[in-house]
Structure formats: C-alpha cells, structure tokens
Design brief:
This protein is mostly helical and about 120 residues long. Helix content is about 65%, strand content about 0%.
C-alpha cells in the first residue's frame, strides 16, 4: 500500500516537472521585468557616471532569461511600456543602461523602437 502511494506521488512529481519545463523557459512577464530592473530606477531617473552594480547584475539576469527571438521581442515591448510609466525618466540613461552594463541586447531601446524586428 505504501509503495503504491509512493509510486503515485512520484508520477505526480514527474508530471509536474515535465509540465513546468516550458514555463521555466518562458520570457519573464512585464511585471517581472519591472521588478527585475528596480535597482536601475535611481540611475535612469538621475544618472551618474555608470549604473550601479546591482542594476547591471539584474540587466544581465534579464538578458539571460530572454533566450529566444520571441522572448526578446516580448521584453522589448515591456521595456517600452516601462519607459512610458516612469516619471522623470532620463531617456538617454534608460537607453544606454544595457550597453553601460556590458550587455549587448541588439537594439537601442527608445519610444520609437520597433520590437517586432
């Protein structure tokens, strides 16, 4: 009886792992992108000579999470939405954060960026 229950629990755990794999590889949601980049807010509002290290760490994390072209298009759209919602945003500072952190995202983020390309 106990081995039957153990088998059922094991099968359930395996199903959860298999079903969770595509979710774990999906692009982060826009709220998750905003949360990830929170340490960058002081820099993009009042830029200094370079972004703080916690900001750069988060930019690198976000870049590593957006693996596919579709993921990158999604994150680009999130970044454009964020730009519109940050009061006092310094556009040049926001646009250059990735580059200043040593991350090549393949485009410069701006209100005019076409995220479908």
């Amino acid at each position: 009886m106990a081995s039957s229950m153990l088998l059922k629990v094991t099968c359930l755990a395996m199903i959860c792992l298999v079903l969770g794999i595509p979710l774990a590889n999906a692009a982060p949601s826009c709220p998750a992108v905003a949360q990830t980049l929170t340490p960058c807010l002081p820099h993009v509002s009042n830029p200094g000579p370079s972004p703080p290290q916690p900001c750069c760490n988060r930019v690198k994390t976000l870049n590593s999470q957006a693996k596919t072209t579709q993921d990158r298009h999604h994150v680009c759209g999130c970044l454009k939405s964020l730009m519109a919602g940050i009061p006092g945003l310094n556009l040049p500072a926001f646009a250059s954060v990735a580059k200043d952190c040593g991350v090549d995202i393949g485009y410069i983020i701006s209100p005019n960026t076409d995220c479908s390309k």
